[in-house]
From TrEMBL, chain A:
The lineage of its organism: Bacteria, Pseudomonadati, Pseudomonadota, Gammaproteobacteria, Chromatiales. It comes from the Bacteria. This is Phosphate transport system permease protein. The gene is pstC. It is found in: Cell inner membrane; Cell membrane. Part of the binding-protein-dependent transport system for phosphate; probably responsible for the translocation of the substrate across the membrane. Gene3D superfamilies: MetI-like (1.10.3720.10).
Automatic annotation (TrEMBL), chain C:
Pfam families: ABC_tran. One of its GO terms (cellular component) is membrane. This is Phosphate ABC transporter ATP-binding protein. Residues 45-287 form the ABC transporter domain. The lineage of its organism: Bacteria, Pseudomonadati, Pseudomonadota, Gammaproteobacteria, Chromatiales. NCBIfam families: 3a0107s01c2 (TIGR00972). The keyword Transport applies. InterPro entries: AAA+_ATPase (IPR003593), ABC_transporter-like_ATP-bd (IPR003439), ABC_transporter-like_CS (IPR017871), P-loop_NTPase (IPR027417), PstB-like (IPR005670). The keyword ATP-binding applies. GO terms for biological process: phosphate ion transmembrane transport. One of its GO terms (molecular function) is phosphate transmembrane transporter activity. Keywords: ATP-binding, Nucleotide-binding, Phosphate transport, Transport. It comes from the Bacteria. It comes from Sedimenticola thiotaurini. Signal peptide: none annotated.
Amino acid sequence: MTNTLLIIILLGLMAIAYQLGVRRSQKVVGGPSGVRALHSLPSYYGFFTALWTGLPALLVLLLWVSLQSGVIRDLVVSDLPEAVRSLPDAQLGLVINDIQNLAQGNIVSGEVSPAMEQASAHYKSLQQTSYAASFVVVLSLAIMGLTFGWRRIAPKYRARNRVEAAIKWMLVGCSTIAIFTTLGIVLSVLFESIRFFQIIPISDFLFGLDWSPQMAIRADQVGSSGAFGVIPLFVGTLLIALIAMLVAVPIGLMSAIYLSEYAGSRFRAYAKPLLEILAGIPTVVYGFFAALTVAPFIRNNGELLGLDVSSESALAAGLVMGIMIIPFISSLSDDVINAVPQTMRDASLGIGATRSETVKNVILPAALPGIVGGILLAVSRAIGETMIVVMAAGLSANLTANPLQSVTTVTVQIVTLLVGDQEFDSPKTLAAFALGLLLFIVTLILNVVALHVVRKYREAYE
Amino acid sequence: MSKQEQIRTMDRVNATLKQRYGRERRFRRFGFFAVLLGLTFVGLMFLSIISKGYSAFQQTRILMDIEFTESIIDPAGEREYAVLSSANYAGLIKQSLRALYPEVKGRKEKRELYAIVSNGAPLVLREKVLADPALIGTRTQLWLPADDDIDMLIKGHIDRTVPESERRIKDNVVAWIEKLEADQKIEKFFNLTFLTGGDSREPELAGIGGAVMGSLYTLIITLLLSFPMGVAAAVYLEEFAPRNRWTDLVEVNINNLAAVPSIVFGLLGLAVFINFFGLPRSAPLVGGMVLTLMTLPTIIIASRAALKAVPPSIREAALGVGASKMQAVFHHVLPLSMPGMLTGTIIGMAQALGETAPLLMIGMVAFIVDIPGGAMDPATVLPVQIFLWADSPERAFMEKTSAAIMVLLGFLIVMNVLAVILRKRFERRW
Amino acid sequence: MLSVTPDTAIAVPASVIAAGFSPVADESRAINGTVGDITVADPRMTARNVNVYYGDKLAINNVSLDIGKNEVVAMIGPSGCGKSTFLRCLNRMNDTIDICRVEGEIRLDEQDIYDSSLDVVPLRAQVGMVFQKPNPFPKSIYDNVAYGPRIHGLTSSKSELDDIVEESLLKAGLWDEVKDRLDETGTGLSGGQQQRLCIARTIAVAPEVILMDEPCSALDPIATARVEELIDELREQYTIAIVTHSMQQAARVSQRTAYFHLGELVEVGKTDDIFTNPRHRLTEDYITGRFG
């Protein structure tokens, strides 16, 4: 809350700085009548002063906030008794959690020792010092900035150019967030994955046929080896994605063809948005639908046919995922089909081809690269889809191609490993990041290839 | 071409014509069938959810004679707050139930009788007494919520005709309820608790109020962060960026991020925001930040399209009268493309509202009873609430889940309609 | 007439006007408001009182015209005059446009092509079409030409198909240029070659009539000359109707010329007569370059 107050004060200071800047710019040219002698409009001098007041202060505040907790933590740890400091990282983390909870007045797991009391008091005082210091530093910086900006105002001073340059740098900053996000994803999953591969060899991970992470809790336990073979997860993921594609591709593609080549404009006007509703439904709703409507339906009907269907069959999850992907395929196909020039259709129809012959022999071959690109994107989506499989697919890692059996997927395992109580450094938790890395790499490759294919296709007809 | 040859050709054309038209018909039917199938799925989902969920908007209540006996509530008679707030209100209900069914004897049967009223009913009495201590010593008739099993029975989700061993409610309880029905002392009311309450282990007390507030805080954070940043990034890329490798890199990144699985963003949030920066788990602030990173590509792509749609002549006109490039963009281009950007933002927000997986990663999946009061309080969001309830075994939670989905879909439909209206209203042909 | 240079073709009527020639000398021979004789002795296609609407808008107003056997009919007129619309009526390509509606009667060898029992697929095999922009399919040269025979089932063996492809390419004057690279994609050819490929594709299904919608508008002068030569050669076997923007082209390739203006057929007659001796003022204004 202290930071919120500080930000409000800063904003107030910036408003004042704006007014001061405008006044001074008018004053240096002898009143409002002389503004034509200024290089820029008075408001730019106002913005200039306000930017000098706010920007450096805000940057420092941001830096402060992001580093504060780390620094305080280190200071507190260095003051802890030697016995505690030499604990392994995972347990030390728990101790620090307790200290923080104690300092915030929350309930603490376990007993509170005097050492802990002391540490939490230390933590609290450090925190208060930090807040106070940040207050002083940030505010004095703001006032220094204000003075600096205010004093630079002169008739020939190019305030507009300066303000515009500052704005431009802010725009540049915003545009680089995409890169930082990608970087953040890569680094966050990479570091944890490397730690994971130090415990479990990467070859065991990539080529192992068994997945049972529940085993590995502590090194000294019996059966501690735990199995982290990713193959069954991947087979499960691909099985479900394949079922989804078998549903989505024919239905999506044929709907797109029907709607763009056959349907009357009225039918199209209603059917297309209705189909696109499917794209707007949250995945958790699909998951609910799969788990409580489709899975029991398949199970009951399978039993009637004498089949042994698991209640968490791959078929139910895949089927519903297919439904989810229909609008994705159909709108992408619609785009590429419409990109095929009308002259192609005319040429084929003009020679006496029927519509379906035109579609099959001319439009689809011409649109094929684009459609393939769209299907690749859809596969990437199916592989990365989480909620449907978490709710409707199983947890046991069966290595099977039978769609009536229960399989598990990469995303399901990430969720099960990370939801609930976790020790941050156990191989179990780290395995989730390794799976995340794998998922990221696979979908990245699919996306890059697909986007490349689609773009090449668009260029061919532009 | 001789006439002879021509006739020969036409014979050949006509020979296969029937077959070709057969194929044409089949192809066309296949296409129509595909569209129909897609529409059936839409209908099926809505039907299945609405038919399961509409009843959750009603709550079964039982009309009870409550005697606010002073000796039970406040034996000392000093009306102290501490005494009143911790009094044995459940005792009042038990007393009333015993009076209603004097024939019930035996400990086991009594326990079954007490269970027909919700665990939340004493709280209702407590509120009443705290608001008006003068009630003590009087006698009133009150509609109190029934237990979720009774609720299911009244709503017809429990079949009374199947053998006793196959249903959750025993015959003696059914008989009590039938007596209440005959006396018109059990009715269905509009369920306000469902819309305003927080989560609960008791289905009849559980509400989506907490989750809706959590979603609201999360979305506000997402909007505050993603809209300005998305627009700024789009303006830079579309209006100022030089065509070089750096810009290409940015663009490739944006396109890829739009297709990265959402759960990976959750991993990023967990590793960076929570473990590295030490932000609190389960907080809407962190949820909003993660969703910001997810929705940014959508907003940037839509905003760029909106900027592209503004013809260059507008920019040239502004530059021609001596505006700087920045002024031309901020005074003319940006206002003209704002409707398109807002449409894209609303669609991005709708995506963010429905997103579940990344929020599971950052701990917004905890069981939280209190309604969050700010962006730093532990909270859950509507889709995660749906996920949590969908996992609960009670039959009554299935109804709640479907109803929560209806509310979520309602919000999404409103947002999408808003986007369509905005697009239609400000659509401009140059 | 084919040797007439553009300059003289335009210069002649100008001198006629200078001599005080009345623009419409013979009103009595006009049918449906059209000046000149719309009929021919040996018609392949006959159009009578054709109206075309796009939605509510009348695009073609009461046009009647015969297209004779083994002749090239040129349709000229300013942009938007309806000449392309009329051409597209002749093999019902307008069916592909939802809002387009055709009234009147068009016959191919006595068969009403707008009869409800008539099938457009064989009709379009009989009346082929070449489009404004060369539009080869993104397939090999061979597959482009073989497309029509394949879908219509015209051949029963590979060698028969090979023969048709070769013959069509020969007729289109493209064989020598492409015979060694039939497997290459058709879109890799030059613009003029592409258009001749499209003509080969059209004649591969042995049509009776070929409709050409400004076939040279996207080509350079040399390629245009080549296609024009081809049109003249094809006349011996096929009936051809060509829409063109260029009066010189009409003068060079056609035997009869029809002048369209604002959806009406203003004047029709022998090409030599139209260009040397236009009878309607609008025709005269157009060919002397006052508008268009």
